Amino acid sequence: MKSMIFNTPSVIRGLRQLTTSGIAGLIALGAVLGPVSPAAAHHGWPGFETDRLIYISGTVSSDGVWGNPHSQFDVTLDSSMPADTPDLRIPDELQDPEDSSRVNAARSYKGPHKELEIIIAPPAWSGRWGLGRALKIGERFRAVGYINRTNDGLFRPVVFWYGDDNVPVNQVLGNTLPVRAPLPK
Question: Any idea what DSSP says for residue 184?
Fold first, then answer.
């Protein structure tokens, strides 16, 4: 007799509606939580201290990852760096005075780390702007970018230069900085 109660058409219809509503609810929850996932916070510009640009220089110290959604590798920092960005060629896309003046005025990194993890655009993007391969251990690396808000050992460039020839690579979408931070005083 109990099995007959659960086999009635109204009960079956109710269970189907509950299942459909539950799936729809999970999809909606995923859409809401998706943009604030750890990956989004890790990779998006808002996860970085965009109120000040930092200059770093050093050598690539790990093979890292060359792939999607971003490439990552470590850089051992030079023991002494200039006070601000040395005279390096700015990529054409970032030569607007509002951007190039900020890149050129970025202060050198003074944080506690001797090595930073670098996160750059995926190969398709970096290749579009001049870097079609993974960087090699021991290769020179200079960059201007931002320190992560929650992990001060993570650095994301807006522009970087690699190799002995200081080849410039744009790392922002389009031709403006993600945030035009105030110029240092």
Answer: P
